[in-house]
Design goal:
The structure holds two protein chains of two kinds. Chain A is mainly alpha-helical. Chain A contains nine helices and no strands. The N and C termini of chain A lie far apart (71 Å). Chain B is of the alpha/beta class. Chain B has 15 helices and twelve strands. Classes of the chains: A mainly alpha, B alpha/beta. Chains A and B meet through α4, α5, α6 and α9 of A and α3, α5 and α15 of B.
């Protein structure tokens, strides 16, 4: 979890926010600054006050993630991604959160999309190891589903076998 | 009256058979109780797992009784009794070796708790069928065959023979029950326990074979077959990852306990109980104080700052484990405040390991670990009042014991707090709307006659509840929330977001000692958490469709 926290880089956000708004402190910049200062409620208010919807989404995601509200952060990330499907920052954060919350297939799908967009760039190399984790987790989920099916089959067959055994002995005559 | 001596002689003649039946009874209970230990590292020991094991064994015994009753009319019931015991011995002897592959086949490594609920239920049921049903069917045959044998030998009434067999079998089961939990498993371990049970059953089989005048050669051949189990690898608990070293492993009367150490840069030890999943019961790191992001223990620290004690902070931890809560508080109290730490831990083995590997202080005036004490019993026994009571009594990763979350229990907690004292409860819950969190919070709130404050511990699947005896709780984000200590404020700041805390009003239908559906709520909790994340994904897929 700590590793993931480091990956959600606030500095990147600050840079994005700076380039978006020039000199005046934007809602996004304020949110990043306030989170660093531990003022989460004020940071959230700043995020909500950010006029650019995409940067408002970035800011909300940042505040929620840094506060540890992972499911909420995941919701905001995917809502943003639905609106800006090619946004690489939202893509990478959504993929990371999906992995953290165990949504293996989605995470793998999003990392594949990042790979398509980024090719063999440095950006991809930075997340390649995590994408590998997403693939592993996807395999794990498949194994879990198979194990569950297997267990249900075993229970069914065992119950059936016991019933048949009981019937078979019912036909056995008691003779001395 | 003239028949009495003959009757007595005939009764004496049935004694070997009754001893054999007693051995079978003991063997049945050894298998049933040790069965849960075998499954524990993979499936835990929740009530669902116990129910599955008991249910399968009872079903298989019923089938065995039926088969035995049909076979009892055959020419040599005593020899058949011997064969049933040999068969049971053979299966029991192979159970340890088969248990690990079967369990791994049904529950792959790396499953996390929130994903495992259904798998644990079905997996433990399937494993019980595969591992324990065959032996139980064979052991079930013993009763009717023994009754028939005794009756033929004594030429007495069926009721007399049946009663004698039931008496011997139940007495054997009694020894098996107490012996397994209190002596065999802790002293010998699970493997030897099964091998011993198999040896007893085989011995019983041989005796029955001899009583039934079976061929010696065939009897020896059966014994040899049972002995082949010695070639098996035995029962192996799941091994942790390569970057984790196992420092100690013990079988206690309660559970399998293990201490592990990470080889990574951050030196950390964990105490795990029955844990094949992704959690631990206690954690230790060399420094006292807060553990860092993701550890709920840190959230036991704020009350000492909100309470502003002058000299001493007296704490009782119910569910002490290896003393993690003590170490966190010891290193995070306000300057000049001394910790007086009491704690109750039901499993003495956990305390022994904590003293050996996790620097738990020896008992003195200020540190008292009540080893072997249930949390509620310890509280009832204590005549002391505390500044803070911490409830951290989880069993089997996710189970809150029902008697530690009833309104009657929280009333006892209330009575043991000083005026203004704090109750902090760790609950494994997926957010402030989690059904378990709401139920326990509402129940405790009723006992304390105030709203409970629940905070979601960031980056974890835990919530911590706060209540106070005759005192107001601080409001997240308000002036009394912050304590002007950077480390503690670092914990409290993220919680001020409205998604990370909630107030829980007193419950209108609290959990009580009489009616406590906490098991059902726990299952609901896991289902709800998984569904919540899946719904977010589904909503995105719908929205993202062109």
């Amino acid at each position: 979890m700590n590793r993931l926290a480091r990956l959600l880089c606030p500095l990147l956000l600050a840079t994005l926010a700076g380039s978006a708004h020039g000199q005046t402190e934007s809602g996004l910049q304020a949110a990043v600054r306030l989170v660093s200062a531990g003022e989460y409620v004020a940071a959230w208010e700043s995020a909500e006050g950010e006029p650019d919807p995409k940067f408002a989404c970035y800011a909300k995601l940042h505040v929620l993630y840094q506060s540890g509200a992972l499911v909420e952060a995941f919701r905001v990330a995917l809502e943003g991604l639905a609106q800006w499907p090619e946004d690489s920052w939202l893509l990478s954060q959504s993929a990371l959160l999906a992995l953290t919350l165990g949504e293996a297939e989605l995470s793998d799908e999003l990392y594949s999309k990042i790979r398509e967009m980024e090719g063999e760039s440095q950006a991809w190399k930075g997340v390649e190891a995590i994408a590998e984790e997403a693939r592993d987790l996807k395999g794990q989920r498949l194994q879990e589903r198979q194990s569950l099916q297997r267990a249900k089959w075993v229970v069914g067959l065992a119950a059936l076998s016991m019933g048949m055994l009981a019937l078979a002995f019912a036909r056995t005559t008691r003779s001395k | 009256m003239a028949e009495a001596p003959h009757a007595t002689n005939r009764s004496r003649g049935s004694l070997p058979l009754l001893l054999i039946v007693a051995l079978a009874g003991a063997g049945t209970m050894v298998v049933e109780l040790a069965a849960v230990r075998v499954l524990a590292p993979w499936f835990g020991t929740s009530s669902a797992v116990w129910t599955n094991v008991i249910g399968v064994v009872l079903g298989a015994l019923a089938l065995g009784y039926w088969i035995g009753s049909r076979l009892s009319g055959r020419a040599h019931p005593t020899r058949l009794l011997g064969l049933a015991l040999f068969l049971a011995a053979f299966v029991v002897a192979w159970t340890p070796a088969l248990s690990s592959p079967v369990a791994e086949w049904l529950r792959p490594a790396g499953v996390t708790l929130d994903r495992a609920a259904e798998l644990l239920l079905w997996g433990s049921l399937a494993a019980s069928f595969l591992l324990f049903a065959p032996a139980a069917v064979a052991l079930g045959c013993v009763g009717p065959l023994a009754v028939e044998s005794v009756q033929r030998q004594t030429a007495g009434h069926a009721g007399t023979a049946g009663g004698a067999v039931l008496f011997a079998s139940t007495l054997g089961s009694l020894f098996g029950t107490f012996g397994t939990t209190h002596y065999l498993v802790p002293a010998l371990g699970v493997n030897l326990c099964f091998y011993l049970a198999a040896a007893c059953l085989a011995l019983g089989g041989l005796a029955a074979w001899a009583v039934g005048s079976g061929s010696v050669l065939q009897g020896v051949a059966c014994l040899f077959l049972v002995a082949t189990a010695g070639f098996g690898k035995g029962y192996l608990v799941p091994t942790p990852n390569d970057d984790v070293a196992v420092l100690a492993e013990r079988q206690s009367p309660y559970q399998f306990v293990r201490v592990t150490e990470t080889r990574a840069a951050r030196h950390q030890r964990q105490l795990q109980v029955n844990e094949g999943l992704d959690s631990f019961q206690s954690v230790w790191q060399p420094e006292l104080g807060l553990l860092g992001p993701g550890f709920y223990y840190d959230y036991f620290a704020p009350p000492a700052w909100w309470g502003r004690p002058e000299e001493r902070w007296k704490v009782m931890v119910l569910g002490l484990g290896a003393g993690t809560a003590w170490r966190v508080l010891e290193g995070s109290l306000p300057d000049g405040v001394e910790l007086v730490a009491h704690g109750a831990e039901i499993d003495p083995t956990v305390v022994e390991l904590a003293r050996e590997f996790m620097e738990m202080a020896p008992d003195d005036e200020d540190h008292q670990a009540w080893a072997g004490w249930d949390g509620r019993a310890a509280l009832a026994h204590s005549d002391q009042d505390y500044d803070q009571i911490i409830l951290d009594a989880y069993a089997n990763q996710m189970e809150v014991p029902a008697h530690l979350c009833s309104v009657e229990f929280f009333e006892e907690v209330f009575q043991h707090l000083k005026p203004g004292g704090w109750l902090s409860i760790n609950i494994g819950g997926f957010g402030t709307e989690d059904p378990v969190v709401r139920a326990i919070g509402g129940t405790a709130a009723l006992a304390f006659e105030q709203q409970a404050l629940v905070v979601q511990v960031p980056f974890s699947r835990n919530c911590v509840l706060y209540l106070r005896r005759e005192g107001e709780l601080p409001q997240p984000g308000k002036q009394d929330w912050s304590v002007s200590a950077a480390a503690i404020d670092g914990l409290l700041d993220p919680v001020t977001l409205s998604s990370n805390y909630a107030w829980i009003p007193p419950a209108s239908a609290p959990l009580t000692d009489d009616h406590n559906p906490i098991d059902a709520l726990q299952r609901q909790s896991i289902v709800q958490a998984t569904r919540e994340v899946q719904e977010v994904t589904s909503a995105w897929r719908t929205a993202a469709k062109p």
